[in-house]
Structure formats: C-alpha cells, structure tokens
Amino acid sequence: MTNCRAVMCCAVVAFGLLSDRRVFAQDTRPAKVSNLLERLTTVIDTKDLTEPIALSDVLTTLIERCAAKDVQLLVLVDLNSFKEANPEGPSPYEALVQLRGTPMTVADALQMAVGQLPYPGAVVLRRGVVEIVTREAGPEVLLRQKVLARFNKTPLSDVMRQFSENSGISILMDQRLQDKLQMAISIEFRGDVSVECAMRVVADMADLAIVFLDGGLYVTTPANAEALEKKLRQRKLEVEDRSEAAAR
Asked: Where are the domains of the chain?
C-alpha cells in the first residue's frame, strides 16, 4: 500500500485536481478508463470481511486480492471533499464498513463499502483511477471543473472521450451520427472554461447538442435533444404528481 498525495494529469487534457487524497495501490500507474472498468469486474472473495472493519483496511484488502490475480488498481480517497462536507466528522479512512461475505466484483464491493460511510459517498472513475468522494462532488460539481486542453484535428468522439476520462462524467454519444462524431476538432482551453462549457462549445462546432441525463450526458442532434428533454421534463412532472398523490 502506498500512502501519499497524488498528482495526476493527462498529456493532452488536464482537469482541476483534488488537493488532499490518500492512495491505495499496488501499482501507481493510472489505467485507461476502459481498462479500469474491465478490472473492476474482477471477482474476489469477501468471506472474512463480514465484520465491521475500517474502510482503509477494506480498500487495502481489495487491492491486495486484485493484485493476487494480476489485476492492478489505483484507489484514491478524497479526504478534502469529506472535510468540506462534514468538518467535524470522522475520517472516512476510519469509518467501519462490512461486506456480504460472498464472492463479488470489485465494483460491487466498493459501492457497498462506500454506501456505508456515515455521510453520503460516491465512487467516481477519472484519470484512469478509482476515486472515493462525497456525493456532493457529483455531476454538477464535476461539470464545474476547469479544462486545460489543446486539441489539433482530433475526432469529436475522441475529444468527448477525453472529457469523460478526465472528468469522471459518463458521456454517451449518438452512434447514428458517425460522420459528425468523426469531425476534426481544433480548439484550445486555457484553464478558465468549465467542463460543461467546453463540451457545449465542442458539440456546437459539429451542430450537435448535449442532453443532461441522470448522472450523465448524451451527445445527439439538437432536434433529438429537444425531444428527449421534453420527455424528461414530462417524466419528472409525472413522478412529482405521483409523489404528491401518495403523500395525501
């Protein structure tokens, strides 16, 4: 296990970094998010983790069991976000969590452990590592990260993929628009533009639009975006009506 502060950046794109993080890892080299998702499907045994144990010990155990299967992971705990959410609260490292005791994927184990923290937590994948943050560091916060980037004739799909991998935001692209997604993008962001603004500008350059979904974004045509947003608003109203009816 390595205990240190980490500074991660992409050679092409750098996003605002966390200021205080603890690293749990056998290998400190970040992976591509696609590779990371595959690693998180690794099944591990948790039969000795059914009793309450500190989160730091659970993470160390998960990392070691992955390493025993030649699967390398890097997990960061964003202490700063937890301090901001609950200044007087205990350290998340010391929070007691427990697992089911049955074989499960690393992804399920992490979600289960983080779900038991005394304050809402979340698992975010960005810059090729797993980050544990407060739920308050959700999509809205991630979208406000600043972008320092230069793209030179880069396909739009690759630009969006870089945004996704470096911000931790799920970005879905309409596969019916292959010509648009292959459009060459040349643009520079100097650290004063948010992820949301940068994405909207890049999408607009290809005459596309962005739809905000629950926990992610969808890149599609303006007409389809408008239709989807209308459906989402209608569904939200229906859910609110049902909730009000149930409360009566």
From this structure: 13-137, 146-235
Q: Which two tokens stand for residue 123?
A: 């698992």
Is 13-137 a CATH 3.30.310 domain?
Answer: no
The CATH number of the domain covering residues in 146-235: 3.55.50.30
The residue among 86 and 41 whose pLDDT is bigger is: 41
pLDDT by residue (tens digit) across 102-161?
999 999 999 999 989 888 788 888 777 888 888 765 667 778 878 888 899 999 999 998
